[in-house]
Give the backbone structure.
Amino acid sequence: MSKASIVVVSSGVSQPSSTRLLADRLAQAVHDELAARGRQADVRVVEVRELAHEVVNMTLTGYAAAPLAEAQAALAAADGVIAVTPVFTAGAAGIFKAFLDVLDTTALAGTPVLLGATGGTSRHSLVLEYGVRPVFTYLHADVVPTSVFAATDDWAEDVDDVKSLPDRIRRAATELADRIAAKAPTRRAGLFDDVPSFGELLGG
């Protein structure tokens, strides 16, 4: 069986970044859950911070430069996606939303997606539900029920607490792995797959 392709979208704006830390932990948990099901995973991380200029340029011109086009192609071909954003001013990071805005609206159709976010306080935890989940629903992604918000205090919680960050990561990872494992790997249609050959056009 082929490896499951997991694409992680991390939109932290600093280095090091708690957003990337959460993204890495989610990716590792999904990798481990798939391994427990006898499925290998190939994980690729897309750092939106590194594509910020290309995202703005595509917003203005409609043209995707090579690095951005490669990231978009990886997402369109992924068996599963993990998308993590920091929370600023009670909403998802601007570069995160801008990156989603330049995706083809069919790129994530039917793709299992796990959502995550980081912020200073748990008061912003509902941003994932009212500000991020609707965007992925619009894109027809298959978003798992459990989203993972990590506030500053969450990183120091008791790992044995059933409401702890590690427990929420495990639960969300299990949901994503279940959906990936339940789907046979499928090849997304290429740009010219539906174009008839000259023989077909000539009736040959």
